[in-house]
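Complex record, three chains
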Amino acid sequence: MEIMSMFWVLASFVILLFIIGIYYLLVTRNLLRILIGMEILTKGVTLLLVAAGYLTGRTNIIQPIIITMIVVEVVIIAVAAGVVIAAYRSNGTVNIRSLRNLKG
Amino acid sequence: MTISPNDFFIFISLALMTLSALWAVMATDILKSALGLALTSVFLSIVIFLLGSPLAAVFELSVCAGLITVVFISAISMIKPEGHTRGEDLGLRRKRRLKKYLPLPLLLVIAGILLWVNRTGLPVSPPPPDGSPLTMLEVMWDERRIDLAGQAIMILVGVFGIVVLFKEYMNRKGSAD
Amino acid sequence: MITLFIAVPLVVVLILNLLPRKLANALSFWCGMALTVISGVYVLTTSQSSWLFGFDPVKRILNWEIVPSDLSAVMFVSIALVVFSAFWVGQYLFSDKNRQFIFNNLLLLCMVGMNGVVFSRDLFTLYVFLEIVAASSFILIALEKTKAGIEGAFKYVLLSAIATVLILSSIALLFMTCGSLDYHTVRACLTSGQLDAGASRFALFAVCLFVAGLFIKGGIVPFHGWLPDAYSSAPTAASVLLGGIVTKAAGVFTLVQLAQNVFGFDKPSPVLLGFGMLSIAVGAFAALGQKDFKRMLAYSSISQIGYIIIGLGSANVFGVVGAIFHIFNHSVFKTLLFVNAAAVEKQSGTVDMDRLGGLSNKMPVTGFTSVLAFLSTAGVPPLSGFWSKLLIILGVWQSGSPTVAIIAILLSLMTLAYFLSMQRRVFFGKLAAGLEEIREADFRALVPAVVLAVITLVIGLIFPWLLGTFLVPLESLL
C-alpha cells in the first residue's frame, strides 16, 4: 500500500484516539478516570510517533525515542496516581468536585 | 490500491485498538475501564510490531500494558473498598447526555479525512537514500545517550514521588484515628 | 560542562541516598549550596567556552548576541541563583528533617532537569527534560500533602499532560516532515523553503501545537488556570522554585530558544503580541484583587511573563534581548518576593494580606528587600527591571506596534498599583492585631533575600556604564 494512503489511515486512527481521550476527559469526574483518559491520549501520541518512523523509513531512530517516551510516561502516570491517592486520603473521595477549593 | 496481508493485519489491529479504547471509555465499572486501557495497549503493541518497530512493541506490551495496568489496578483497589456510591464515581448523568453525541464528531472526522485525502501533498520526508547507516541500538546508545541519562533521572524522580505520595505517614494516621 | 550540570548533581543525589540518613540530612543542604555556587561561578568565569564572551562578568550577562549559547549562560546563572535561594528557604521552613531531605533531593533533580532543558539541542531530549522538571514539580507541590497542595498538584498534572500530548504530537509531525529532530536540521528544514505547500502547512500546524504546549507550561493566559493554584498551594519553599524559575525554564525560555533557533520567527508576530498583552492585562487585574500574598505574586508572574512574550513577539534585537534580560530579572525579583513571603509566612503564620500589616518595623530587612523587589518588578529606574522593560518596549515600538508599546507602559503602572496595595497591607501602616510579638526572620531567610536584593540593585546601577556598548545600535535607530 502506498505511503500516502497509509499516512491518512494512521492519521485518522490517531485522531480517533485523541477524540476518545478528550471526550473522556470532558465527561468524567473521577480523578482516576482522568488518568485513564490521559493514557488514551498518550496511546494516540505513541501511534503517531510509530507512524512517523514507519512512513519516513527511519524506524531505527524512532524506536529509542518511543522506548524513552514510554519510560517517561510510566513515571508521570505513577506520580499522578500518587497524587490521586493522596487526594483520596485527604478528601475521602476521588470526585473532581473535591478539588475546587482554590479560587480567585 | 493494493493491500498486502501485513497491511490487512495492521488495519484489523488498529480497529480493535480503537474499539477497546471505546470500551474503556464507555465502561461504567472503573476496573473494566482499566482493563480496556490494557487491551488498547496490547493491540497498539501489535500495530507497532507490524509497523517495523519490534523492540518498541515489546516495551509497549510489558510497560504500558503490564506496569501501568498494575499501577491503575492497585490504585483502584486502594480507593474502591472504602465505600463509594457509583453515581458519584462516574458523573453518570452528564455522561449519558454526552454519550449520544459521541458518534457525531467521529463520523465528521472520518468524512473530513476521506474528503481531504487527495487534496493535500504528502507531508512526509522521503526515506534516507541509502538507508540510515546506524542500527537502532547504535542510535540508542550513541546518539541518544543523554536521553538514557534522562530516563535514569526520571526513574529517580519517580522513586521520590512514590516515597512521598504513597507512603502513609504512620504518626499522622495514628493521630487521626 | 555537561558533567557539571547534569552528571554531578545526579551522582550527588545517588550518594546522598546511600549514606546514613542523619549524615545525609546535613550534607544535602551543603551539597546543594556547593553545586549551585560552583555552577553559577563557573558560568560567569569560564571565558574559553564558545558561549561566553567579553571579560567583565556583568557585561557578560548583559551583552550577548542572540545565539543559543548565550541564552544558555543567562539561564544557567538564573537557575543556580533560584535553586540557591530555594535551598536556604527549604532549610528555613521545613521543621521535619525527613521532609527537608526529600525536598533537597527533589530540588537537585529539578535543577538537573532545568539544566537539561537549557542544554538540549534536540527536540526529543528537550521533551524528556521538560518532563523531569514537571514530575519533580508535581511532587514538590504535593510535598506537604495538604488539601490545597494536592489540588494544585493535580491541576498541574492534568494541564501538563495536555501540554505533553501537544508537544509530543508536534515532535512526531516534525519528525515526519523533516526526518530528524535536532535543532539544526529542523531549522534548516523549516526555513529553507524546500517544503512544498502541503508539507509547509503541515509543519506550521506542528509548530502551532508546540507553541500551544509551551504556552501551557509557561502559564500564559488563557492557558494559565493551573499556575496560581500551583504557586499558592505549594509549600512556600517550593513556590520559590516554581515562581522563580520553573515556568520560565520550562515554558518561556524554551519558547524563546525554539522561536529564535528552530522555528525561525523573524517577523513581528501579532499572535505572540496578542497573547502577551492578554497575559499582562489579565495577570495585572487579577493580582489587584488578591488577598493571598503568594497568589498575588503568582498573578504578577503571569503579567510579567506577558512582557517577555511581547518582547519575543517583536522579533527584533531589542525585544528579544529585553525578553531574555527580563527572564533573568524576573527570576531574581520574583524569587526575592517569594523569599519574603516565606519569611512573612513563617514568622506570622499567615499569608492572608488582610490579617497582616505594619511588618516593616518588626521585620526591617524583609520589608526593605521586598520594596526593592517590587520597584524592580514595576520597572522603576534605576533597578534592573526598568532596563529590561525599557528594552522590551523599545523593541515592540520598533517592530511597528506603538499601540501595544503604549498599552504595555500603561499596564506597567498597574504593576505599581497592586504592589503598592500589597506593601500597604503587609509591610506599612499600623501593626495588625496579634502580631506584636513578631520578629525578623533568621539568617536562613535573610541570606538569599540580601543576595538577590544586591543583585537587583547592582545590575540596575551598573547598566548605565554599559550604555556605550549596549546601546550603540539604539542611537543609530532613534
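Note: Chain C touches chain B through 41 residues (CB under 8 Å).
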